[in-house]
Amino acid sequence: MNVSFLELQQALIETTWMVGLSTLGAVAFGIPLGVVLFGTSPGLFWENRLIHRVLGTASNVVRSLPFVILLIVLIPLTKTLLGTSTGPTAASVSLMIAGIPFYARLVESALHEVDRTIIEAAEACGASAFQTITDVLLSEAKPSLWLGLTVTVISLLGYSAMAGLVGGGGIGDFAIRYGYHRFETDALLVTVALLIALVQALQWLGDRLAQRARK
Fold first, then answer.
1. pTM of the model
2. What's the pLDDT at 24?
3. Ranges 26-40, 51-65, 145-159, 176-190: which has the least confidence
4. Domain at 10, CATH number
């Protein structure tokens, strides 16, 4: 394999940067969005069909777009925000926008799984909607939230590989340059092995965190 270890290391660093930034964004914005989607559902704290439908539809629209198309559509926005549309930081903008509605829906689903009697008990004790969500629901849903975050991070890792198609760098770019354009099968196999190892490690960590949250 005519590839230096430094090039592979750099590709891995770029992928870690992309996935790390987009995961932070998915958590920071996905949890509040998921809470609002849950709270505006019929029969809940801030029941509002219009808001629920608008946010739900917007989330579904973003999730329905293949990530490669989303990358291309968001190039003008990325250029406006960062002054460039290439590089791992620029790619993380698209990854973040893809990750937010994805994780938000998982948060909403996790909150719906919590027993309604717990909500009723909190309300009977005089807890406000905000207190019920932050102190009770999010705490009870923690195992599902960890598992949902694990699925999100693994999905973002897969998306980050596609970012190489538009100059995003990372492992995907490494695989395209060496495994596809130069027909170096060894480079492609190393990339596949790295991605498999990363997914296995992330899934193991997510399962352990969820298991600990159940105790």
1. 0.88
2. 96
3. 176-190
4. 1.10.3720.10
Alpha-helical segments (H) within the chain? 5-39, 49-64, 67-73, 75-82, 88-112, 116-124, 129-131, 138-140, 142-162, 170-174, 185-214
Judge residue 2's burial from the number of C-beta atoms within 10 Å of its C-beta, 0-12 exposed, 13-18 middle, 19 or more buried.
exposed
> Cβ(190)–Cβ(8) under 8 Å?
yes
- What's the domain range around 120? 5-214
CA distance 88 to 83: 13
Q: How confident is the model at residue 118 (pLDDT cuts 50, 70, 90)?
A: confident
Tell me the per-residue pLDDT of 152-206, one tens digit each, with 9 for 90 and over: 999 999 888 887 777 777 887 787 777 777 777 777 888 888 889 999 999 999 9
C-alpha–C-alpha distance, residues 47 and 41, integer Å: 5
Sign of CA dihedral 63, 145, 34, 48: positive
| Overall number of domains in the chain | 1
pLDDT of residue 10: 86
Buried-state track 45-78, b at ≥16 Cβ within 10 A, e below 16: beebeeebeebbeebeebeeeebeebbeebeeeb
